[in-house]
Amino acid sequence: LHPKYFEMSSYRGSASHPWHDLHPGEDSPNIINAVIEIPRGSKVKYELDKDTGMVYVDRILYSSVVYPHNYGFIPKTLCEDGDPLDVLVLMQEPVVPMCFLRVRPIGVMGMLDQGERDDKLIAVHADDPEYSGITDISQLAPHRLNEIRRFFEDYKKNEHKEVLVDIFENSVVAKRIVCESLDMYQDHYVPKKHRHTYTKDAKVEEPQADAVVTTDAVEQKKRKIENVA
Predict the structure, then answer these.
(1) How far apart are CA 40 and CA 68, in angstroms?
(2) Partner residues linked to 102 by β-bridges
């Protein structure tokens, strides 16, 4: 081999890992970074390979559905399933896999995937003018939330896998979950003397709108509570 090859290779450092090396954001949990794995409108289930930091094609969705919004994860977070916190990002355009952008958490959708907790953070692109005034999930049209719910209820049906979707919670709950997942990552991956406690130190901004989600599921839960009372 030409000596120049060895000279060039000596400059190559280790590749950065989007989960472990990207900062979650200076204003976490109000504005956070998100890495997009799957663009809106895709039927391809791209997924982060946690060992290499590369994106691989996990599968093509078995059902006749496509992702309704850009989908990815929050760096330096960890959830009970051993994965980073999932996020669905509402914005005007689809984006390419493994890019990152700033998002504003506005809510969270509770979900059980084959009996395992797998909540989905709902966020808007912080630098998209169409969504600049959206601070809470209650400001979205109920039909938008029903579309998201229906996608996750259906996308694994032809794989004979059970997915149960719970209610949508507001931005305050969403930001609390972000902080908890950031702390779980710190506990698992960061040496004790270098840890930062997000649940204790973060300044959480309150939503501007009343955090009331008017989906059918929430109305049913309200009626159940009223009946018990």
Answers:
(1) 6
(2) 33
Question: Quick one: tokens of 108?
Answer: 């969270």
DSSP state of 15: P
What gap in Å lies between CA 159 and CA 31, rounded to an integer? 35
What CA–CA distance (Å, rounded) separates 184 from 74? Answer: 13
Q: 127 vs 193, which has greater pLDDT?
A: 127
Contacts of 46 (CB under 8 A, 6+ apart): 37, 38, 55, 56, 57, 58, 97
Contacts of 74 (CB under 8 A, 6+ apart): 24, 32, 33, 34, 35, 84, 85, 87, 121, 178, 181, 182
Reported confidence tier of residue 208, pLDDT bands at 50, 70, 90: low
Q: How far is CA 184 from the centre of its chain?
A: 15
Residue 92's contacts (CB-CB under 8 Å, 6 or more residues apart) are 125, 128, 130, 131
Q: Residue 94 and residue 39: Cα distance in Å, rounded?
A: 5
Chain CA centroid to CA 179, Å: 13
* Mean pLDDT, range 59-77, rounded to an integer: 96
Residue whose pair of structure tokens reads 């590369």 in the numeric block: 54
CB count within 10 Å of CB 156 equals: 17
List Cα–Cα distances, 68 to 11, 12, 39, 41, in angstroms.
41, 38, 9, 6
